[in-house]
Amino acid sequence: MVMFRKNEITVSTRMEKQDYKRFLLENAYKISTVSTLVGRLALALIITLLVRNALHPSAGVMAVVFAASLALLFAIQRFELELQYRMNTDHDPLQQFGRWQTLHFGRDGVVIHAQDVKQTGEIPYEKLIRVAETGEYFYLYMSRKAAAIIRKKDMKSTEAAELSAFLKEKMSPYYIRRC
Predict the structure, then answer these.
(1) Cβ-based neighbour number of residue 148 at 10 Å
(2) Which strands, in side-by-side order, build the sheet including 8-14?
(3) Per-residue pLDDT reduced to its tens digit, 95-150
(4) Do the beta carbons of residue 163 and residue 154 sit within 8 Å?
(5) Across-strand partners of 175?
(6) Residue 101 CB: number of other CB atoms within 10 A?
(7) Distance CA 107, CA 121 (A)
(8) Of 16-30, 47-61, 67-81, 116-130, which range is least confident?
(9) How far apart are CA 88 and CA 68, in angstroms?
């Protein structure tokens, strides 16, 4: 549900654990999958060159070392994400999963109120480092690894477009669309 007032928008959304997991996976590859892949390839190449200099193996062994290094780097990243996911969802210190949240986008910031929680949170727009829009979500980043998540499936497409335009205006040039 989305309500509009002049220069204000109120959105109701719900964050499930799978939404958070998706955020972690999307955030792990940041804006560009290419730059993440290039970084992993460079690390795998360095490992391969270190093995070559130490052992002087054949080209076939070097190819195996390179492939294994690359696979290991992605497996380590996936393990770290899974660990972070489990720690945050098992303890849920913010009591955010499975609850409806109302986000009121006002003139100076966002006020967040979670269902059955007495406290509200407020995030001034200048404290947001970026807003990213994907095909299914809006992410309001407070840090590189922490964001408020708004599901588009909780609103009509016209409402999502209105919120997109509102956030683009408020957060330009820190608004990124990855649809």
Answers:
(1) 21
(2) 2-5, 8-14, 100-105, 109-114, 120-124
(3) 677 788 899 999 899 998 888 878 788 899 999 999 999 999 999 998 877 888 99
(4) no
(5) 131
(6) 20
(7) 16
(8) 16-30
(9) 30
The rounded distance, in Å, linking the Cα atoms of 110 and 117 is 17
Let me know: does 150 contact 103? Beta carbons within 8 Å.
Answer: yes
**Contact partners, residue 39, CB within 8 Å, separation at least 6:** none
Give the pLDDT confidence of 88-101 residue by residue, as tens digits: 777 766 667 778 88
Asked, as a colleague might, if the bond just before 57 is cis with ω within 30 of 0, I would say: no
Instruction: Render the burial of 14-28: b for 16+ CB within 10 Å, e for the rest.
Output: bbebebbbbbeebbb
How many Cα atoms sit within 13 Å of 86 on the Cβ side? 6
Digit-coded pLDDT (tens) for 26-52:
776 665 566 678 888 999 999 999 999
Amino acid at site 24: L
User: How many C-beta atoms lie closer than 10 Å to residue 166's C-beta?
Assistant: 16
Q: What type of residue is 1? A: M
Q: Alpha-carbon distance 115 to 108, whole Å?
A: 23
Give the side-chain half-sphere CA count within 13 A for 85. 19
Contacts of 78 (CB under 8 A, 6+ apart): none
Tell me which residue of 105, 90, 86, 87 sits closest to 148, measured CA to CA. 105
